[in-house]
Specification:
The chain is mostly helical. It has helices at about 5-30, 40, 50, 60-80, 85-100, 120-130, 140-145, 150, 155-160, and strands at about 105, 105-110, 110-115. The longest helix is centred in the N-terminal third of the chain and has 25 residues, at about 5-30.
């Protein structure tokens, strides 16, 4: 856990940046009734067969819902510092998935990015936030950890630790 005020400031800064990243993505998805993952996932290259499954008429609405509200919940969690461990883990999963979806081996999205792009950087920042217990830095995880329900049910502790 960060101990100096500079380190706490950096952790808070990175947490807010990642919160904004997810909330901004959600703002274009949740409030746009025409948003669907089909357009994006139908153009994948390296792992096309993997992602094509999620563009079927049966799975596309479910995948779209999970993406738009996943972005929203991850962003809110990071913003308020509540259950950061959980939201950051799901954020890492999303970033790795997006990296794979953008991959046109050995390039990512276009010839500007060789093997890695900003999705790998975002995933790294989210790992850092987990390691540094970012929800305890001016966040609600420190408060939630002291709730009676968490104290009485130790299985809940990892959610806010």
């Amino acid at each position: 856990m960060p101990t100096t005020s500079i380190e706490k400031g950096i952790v808070l800064y990175l947490r807010f940046l990642m919160a904004w990243t997810f909330l901004y993505a959600a703002s274009h998805q949740v409030f746009d009734p025409s948003f669907t993952v089909v357009g994006f996932l139908s153009h994948t290259k390296t792992f096309h067969n993997l992602f094509a499954v999620f563009t079927t008429p049966t799975l596309a609405p479910i995948t779209t819902f999970l993406v738009e509200y996943g972005h929203l919940l991850i962003g809110l969690s990071l913003l308020f510092g509540l259950m950061v461990r959980v939201s950051a883990a799901f954020g890492i999963l999303l970033m790795v998935t997006y990296w794979m979806a953008h991959l046109d081996w050995p390039f990512v999205e276009d010839t500007t990015n060789l093997i890695f792009d900003y999705h790998a950087v975002y995933a790294g920042v989210l790992v850092y936030l987990i390691v540094k217990h970012a929800g305890h830095v001016w966040g609600l995880d420190a408060w939630a950890q002291n709730l009676d329900v968490v104290k009485q049910h130790p299985g809940l502790r990892p959610l806010v630790a």
